[in-house]
Amino acid sequence: MATLTYRDALNVALREEMARDDRVFLMGEEVAEYDGAYKVSRGLLKEFGPKRVVDTPIAELGFAGIGVGAAMVGLRPVIEMMTWNFALLAIDQIVNSAAKMRYMSGGQVGVPIVFRGPGGAALQLGAQHSQAFESYYAHIPGLKVIAPATPADAKGLLKAAIRDEDPVVFIEGEMLYNLKGEVPDGDHVTPIGKADIKRAGKDVTIICHSKTVAPSLKAAEALAAEGVDAEVIDLRTIRPLDVDTILESVARTNRCVVAEEGWPFAGVGAQVVDTIQREAFDALDAPILRVTGADVPMPYNKVLERAAKVDAAKIQDAAKKVLYL
Amino acid sequence: MTATARSTKAPDAATQALHRSYLRQMMLIRRFEEKAGEAYSLGKIGGFCHLYIGQEAVAVGVMAALRPDDHVISAYREHGHALARGLTSRAVMAELFGKATGSSAGKGGSMHIFDAAAGFLGGHGIVGSHIPLAAGVAFAHKYRGGDQLCVCFFGEAAANIGAFHETLNMASLWDLPAIFIVENNGYGMGTAVSRAAAVTNLSVRGNAYDMPAEQVDGQNVLTVREAMDRAVTRARAESKPTLLEIKTYRYVGHSMSDAAHGTYRTKDEVDEYRRRDPIAVLADLMKAGGYWDDGRHDALVTEVQAEVEDAVTFADASPDPDPSALYTDVYAPEGR
Prior knowledge:
The complex is a heterodimer of chains A (about 325) and B (about 325).
Chain A: E1 2-5, H1 6-20, E2 24-28, H2 44-48, E3 53-55, H3 60-72, E4 76-80, H4 91-98, H5 101-104, E5 114-119, H6 134-138, E6 144-146, H7 151-163, E7 168-173, E8 180-183, E9 196-199, E10 204-208, H8 213-225, E11 230-234, E12 237-239, H9 243-253, E13 256-259, H10 268-279, E14 289-291, H11 302-308, H12 312-322
Chain B: H1 3-6, H2 13-41, H3 56-63, E1 71-74, H4 79-85, H5 89-96, E2 120-123, H6 131-144, E3 150-155, H7 162-173, E4 178-184, E5 187-188, E6 191-192, H8 193-196, H9 205-208, E7 213-217, H10 221-238, E8 242-247, H11 267-274, H12 278-288, H13 294-317
Parallel strand pairs in B: 1-2, 1-3, 3-4, 4-8, 7-8
Antiparallel strand pairs in B: 5-6
Helix pairs in contact in B: 2-3, 2-4, 2-12, 2-13, 3-4, 3-10, 5-13, 6-7
């Protein structure tokens, strides 16, 4: 067990999978000679050479499609989006090509590809560079959507994503890259579609993922000081959603808060709430509350930006409300 | 045009047989598409259905230059490409009918014909969206070594979309063994190329990416084949891409809902192009060489009619997909 940053955990996963399988290659803007815009690919060019670590022009649609084409005939591309904001230029390839290929070919042509890069807001980057895309892609049958919160999950889930037979949208937390944590050595592969109970508790379930996991845990500590024992579930995979873990927890706590970085309308939390009300209506002792980013384009101003973002205090308040405290 | 394409002297027996096979494929595509049009009007085929009538020499001339281990990827006017690549009339017709026996098990339809075993990778419905896929397939061929290539068919309207330019740039930058076929039939739906492209000679767009390019007469299958041979050699021997603008014409509407003429083009214009019909161009050349005649032609007409009738009968009699098929093929089966 080594202590690694989230960034280096991703780097290790890439390195191990590239060493393990010569069909795996990394393609994207600045991934090779620049060592990665966020240094996730640091050292990979030196180790694997330019055939397998490929710098592209700024042409997201084009190189996303090139990745899909290569996957159609059996390679295992990892396509880095410098940020998911830029992947909007490539969404046609992700949705219309990658997600639908297996189905519209009657099962003949699969697309084992990973699209990965940082998502969510950083600090004062303004409206076009500060958005969470999980719900966009989770809407699409044919895609799997992963958003890890810890270095260990970043490594284990990226390795699982690269080995998966289907297209995976892998959304890293731009503000998580420097987060440190213990990461299992060796072939640590985390199953796709399994949530993780990051903190066990009995009074209220807080469901979160990616950047809302840390504030949820912080909120749980603050709640503990007030005598409330909160359970924190990290979804880890958005699609397929781990319904069993969610329902099992809510059946015990009878109260639930869903926190996510994205916008409220048709967000990930909306899907989670829909599932719970259908499958566990009788278990609920209070309406489920959601904590989301504000329903606005992200403002630049520091004070406004802080107001737009999810934080521990907002999650704590919501938990107290569902407990009628 | 080259000497071979103009020749009126009888070629050797192997070449004569080749020409007969080109003629048969073009006639099969023509008859298949006419029949698909009929089946559409009878409600046997649903959705969109884009016919290839008039453009047959392009598909046949291009495919003739390929090997079985090459790959082909196309847009949504691809019935002819699929047939020329060797998919059976039955499999393609059954797909148009949405049947379980179709090439995509009834889940794709007219715009999404696939046959992985034949290296036929669709059938794509978003204009220009599949152009980067072709470069990706070519990237994989180069990555693995060997001399396979990937051919990509698209209409001239797709040459105005960003994916075309991004792909040509990277294909040239990285020396990918891809051949990009612009089938310039003059119109993107109802918009004439001169109303959509600032430079109507689309082959010159290769210059912007340092990619060898040619304009090719698409009504003569032999000319198409010769241009393809040059491109194939370039791809196999040098791992370099080529852009071929193949000038052709569709006699029918864009899809099934628009008339062949009367709005964006005149009947005279359609008739003018029909006078250089690709089937007649080759048949006349063969007749001039003394190795074709009306009797053999009529027999071939009967032969392809029978094949297409059989395909329709097969498609009609085939079952719909099982209801359970609705939820299969979304993801890989468990345990893979």
